[in-house]
Amino acid sequence: MHSFVYGIMSLVWLSSSGGGAELAPPVNLTLITMNTHFNLSWSQGARHRGANVSFSVQYVPSYKLSMPGTQWLTACENTPHTWCDLTPRKLYFQAIYTLRVRTHRGPLRSGWVLKEFCADKEAALGPPSRVDLAPAGALLNMMIWDPRSSTNGSMKELYPRMYYRVVYWEHSDTRSPDTVVVDTRVNTVTLPDLRAWTWYCVSVQSRYDFYSKTSAFTTPHCMQTEGAVPWWQILLIFSLSGLVGFVGLLVLLSSGLYCYRTAKDTLFPAVTLPPHFQAYLMDLSPGSDAPRLLTPDSESELTCDRLSICPQVVPLEVHLPPLSASTAPPSGLEADARHNRQDSGGSGDSGVYSTEGGSGPPRHCSHDLPSLGTEEPWDGGSTALLEPVSLEQVSLEQVSLEHRGLKAEAAGPWGVRDEGIMDMGV
């Protein structure tokens, strides 16, 4: 049926194009496929090779060709390439499609060239997408990943009876390998009859027997098997483990001892104070002068001696001037006045002066000395020493009153006032 339809389409093309067509159609239409990836390619006619031409590709399900009003679907329009990718068109895998290609150059068109395509029958089968090996003692476990479609699905969904052919051999550089072939439909395989501690290489092929499809073999993947560990390796591993543990224990003990010594030297230093310093610092008796904090109880018992502060006292001397003949005092007073002049070294100066810096008697701070303003008998001397208790207690008024009292006594019973007595200044 399909051949009949194809023949009819060829006759229609011949009748429409005629023998006098100016453009030659494409030649050698070929489909390059892998799983669900489809690519249609062709060659440019020899007569137009190198010319500025373009191509158009269309497709339609073959069963619609016998239907009136069939519309072709465009895959590539006016492309300068000699190939067209049909994968994005998502052609149904088990359906049969009719493809056609023609050449364009300006307003000129060539006739269509037709080609039938069935992906289920004609598409090539790809190898496994991945192969992994893992040692399992003296054997090898192999994991096979299915070929992938254009939508990243497994090709087993399209080929349920697909299986794998596994070829493995012992890796050797000195002799040709002896291969072993194993067919399997599962994705996990354990390779049998292997030797321990030996390198083996594996290659896998996808197969589908209904259309006799076979893929290329995968790149060889090699892995070494394992086995029972020899006694000397066990002994060596045990010895190394013990040595490492012993060294680690020594390091741990050394670190602990160092930390202990550091803490001990810091908190309890080896250099101590002399015994008499320790006894002084540890003396907590009430009479000790060691520094310590005062507590409320100790403050209540704290006693101090009374302290008196006395200012420096400057004794004052009062000198009386000599009396004139007309106003001479009584004999007793005259004698005292002469005595006063003799003590003053014959000087006619009168007033109050300080004995500071002289060789007078030592100064004392005493509360037994008489104060100014008290009436005491004059002992007849020419100098009266006035030693008040405090300089703050002496005032000009008190000195003036004392001076006036002395002048009254000098006047005597006659009531004559001695004009020779001058006011005294401090």
UniProtKB/TrEMBL annotation:
Region (Disordered): 325-383
Pfam families: Interfer-bind (PF09294), Tissue_fac (PF01108)
Transmembrane portions of the chain: 231-253
Database matches in CDD domains: FN3
Domain (Fibronectin type-III): residue spans on this chain: 25-123, 127-228
Gene3D superfamilies documented for this protein: Immunoglobulins (2.60.40.10)
Record keywords, A-Z: Membrane, Signal, Transmembrane, Transmembrane helix
Cited InterPro entries: FN3_dom, FN3_sf, Ig-like_fold, Interferon/interleukin_rcp_dom, Type-II_Cytokine-TF_Rcpt
GO CC field: plasma membrane
Signal peptide: 1-20
GO molecular function annotation: interferon receptor activity
Chain segments annotated as coiled-coil in the UniProt record: none
Name by which UniProt lists this protein: Interferon alpha/beta receptor 1b-like
UniProt source species: Gadus morhua
Gene: LOC115529311
